[in-house]
Amino acid sequence: MSSADTASAWLLVVLCAVSGAYCLRQVRRSGGAAAGEAVMAFGMALMAVPLGDRDGWQALVLGAVFCAAALHAVWLLRGGVHHAHHLVGSLAMAYMSLTAAAGHGHGAGPSLVTGLLLLYFAGYVLLGGARLVTAGGDAQGGYPGGYPVASAELSRACRLAMGMGMLAMLLMM
User: Fold this and answer.
1) Mapping DSSP to helix (H, G, I), strand (E, B) and coil, where does residue 96 land?
2) Is the pTM of this model over 0.85?
3) In terms of pLDDT, which residue wins out, 163 or 138?
């Protein structure tokens, strides 16, 4: 791994860890809804740590954590289809972990699954970026639901950062 790749990996680690810390801070305010995002962000930070070749057990442990997160996301789907992104993200992380454990990363080109995930997260990032740019509070300085402007925009920015991190990790496969 070159020094530029190592620096990029560490920047991704910091970005994901900061997003995870913010989500963890929001858990009480959101009634626990941000817990899944915090787990994903911290898991992404762990996966991005530039350790060189990972031993199989490390990737398998992360894969198990993300499979559990996927089951939690399935449970969240009871509350509405808007939780489907958590399921896709959890399954993508499990896929990357298990692919790394099997030693199939950095092949001749992206697999069909990797390509589909790249398309999904590229669209998610573009849409999320457009929503963040066009977001605006109401005349009282807040958003519907009682969130202050800064909190709602920061939450969107964290989701966007995690989407970009996912896209970066998929591109490195």
Assistant:
1) helix
2) no
3) 163
